[in-house]
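Field notebook, page 607. I keep forgetting to write these up properly, so this time I am using the form the group agreed on. The chain and the ligand, 2-deoxy-2-amino glucitol-6-phosphate, are recorded exactly as supplied. Prediction of the bound pose follows.
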Amino acid sequence: MCGIIGYCGPKQAVEVLVEGLKRLEYRGYDSAGIAVGFKNEVTVIKKKGKIKDLRQVIPDGIKGNYGIGHTRWATHGSVNDINAHPHSGCAGKIVIAHNGIIENYTGLKEILEKEGHVFKSETDSEVIAHLIEKYYTDDLEKAVKEALSILKGTYGIVCINPDEPDRIIGARNGSPLVLGVGDGEMFLASDVTAIISHTKQVVYLEDGEVVSIRPDGFKTTDLNENRIEKDVEYISWELEEIEKNGFSHFMEKEILEQPEAIKRAISGRVITDVASAHLGGLDLTTKELLNIERVKIIGAGTSYHAGMVGAYLLESIARIPCVPEIASELRYRNPIIERNTLYFAISQSGETADTLYAMRELQRKGATVLGVCNVVGSTIARESDGGVYIHSGPEIAVASTKAFSSQITVFYLFALLLSRMRDMSYEQGIDYIDNLRSIPAKMDEIFRKRNEIKKLAEKYAHYKDMLFLGKGINYPVAMEGALKLKEISYIHAEGYTSAEIKHGPIALINEETPSVFLVPDGGLKEKVISNMKEVKAREGKIIAITVEGDDSVGEIADDVFMIPKINEIFYPFLLVVPLQLFSYYCALELGRDVDQPRNLAKSVTVE
Ligand code: AGP
């Protein structure tokens, strides 16, 4: 969603700000803007559309060594130049960019208007600029704090005032803000990708903290003027990881990175000697692990689907009752916290509001919630009671791919750990580890045949509706396949457990609605084949994904794609890859914006 960048230092701020905004594009946005300060003057430039549209309206040779920039994903007010950030107070001096939602803006706006303030936009954010302007005498930091103390809602903000040149005030409450510490220059950003090309030294701000930066240093305080000492941390991501490196799209690159991502997620966590796993970040003793009676996994979108796979696995092999739940629902049904229940909050970005707020609600009621996150230092990672990083490396494409594989890898490791404390024998443990370790090479085999999937996509991309059908542990994979297809190709797709189609969806089947069936070998294969026959009998076209050497499915399906054989509980890893590639190639065939599909944001920081 919205992105923030701020800079003060010796460089021309325009270049740093525009580059930062380009790197934030992946988050999803509809307009953008910058404010550049030069001595005691500030110039604000805003534009609906993409960063390239903004670039075109930035006058050549605009000078300035400090400034702020923003990518907006509209919540309050339509998408236009005026509603784009940054926003200014009446005098045009106090300039702010804001991520989040100000809940009491209507009342504040009314009061400020009565006091003579004139508003230009329909946004909730503009009220912040006017409020700071109201309180400003000669110290920007003081005025920002006064304004923040009466705001209700969430914010990550940056603010400048050319009367105090080369200074930026930043603050956070519910929307991330990170400080980048350079050599004689300082940065503020909503995520590290915006500043990683300049510095890898960062300070993560916590809710309630305010930072004042100048080129030569920074000072962190809370709203009550208490000084807060912050540690400077080091980002391990490399710049090349957030660049396309010759690939046409980040999504293609990230799909192909999955074997390496899985190896990283496994690395250092398998103990072959005892055929078990070690997940240090969980911070749970053996006794505590043995006392777990139930597991609940919360997440959204793809992360929820990964949680569904995890839940199936934990229940079937570790024999622990486990349920996945959509995070946005959990908070509002007043959940009962049962004894000895372990919760996982699973989120690639670690910033998804639905998951974060559900986690806080659980913690408020006394639950232990562990995070499964990709982004180091993200809010869920910091606020959870322990957890595991998936180490996928940055995921830039809006459609999540490698994070899914890495998330489920973590659950396969956790299931191994718990199972080996219960029923799983040493030999079974070794076999399980061998299967897990074999996945990256088997994924590479699928990639070598990806042209076959491209041809299938070219054949099916022009259909308007599709069903994705699987069973057992592969049912969430069918849901994930449908989500991927609709996200980036805009083809209407739904994922079901294959038996469920008889209860309604089969009414959709005719020659215009193809179905993608997941039919690997294993105990449920014959059941899925029966469902395929039901679809075939109604003239539905079928793409079947099955296992190499299995010709039985080909007699029913119109098209078949074969994946390598593996132990049946590991098929989610191998089935999801052709589905990701299928949606990628469908989107290409339809000329869609693969990495930044319409209306979507990478990290959904509002409810
Ligand atoms: C996945 O392709 C989607 N972009 C979306 O469903 C995503 O998985 C969801 O918003 C959750 O994000 P998170 O993992 O960062 O919490």
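OBSERVATIONS:
- The chain has 18 helices and 26 strands.
- Residues 426-448 form the longest helix (23 residues).
FOLLOW-UP: compare against the apo run.
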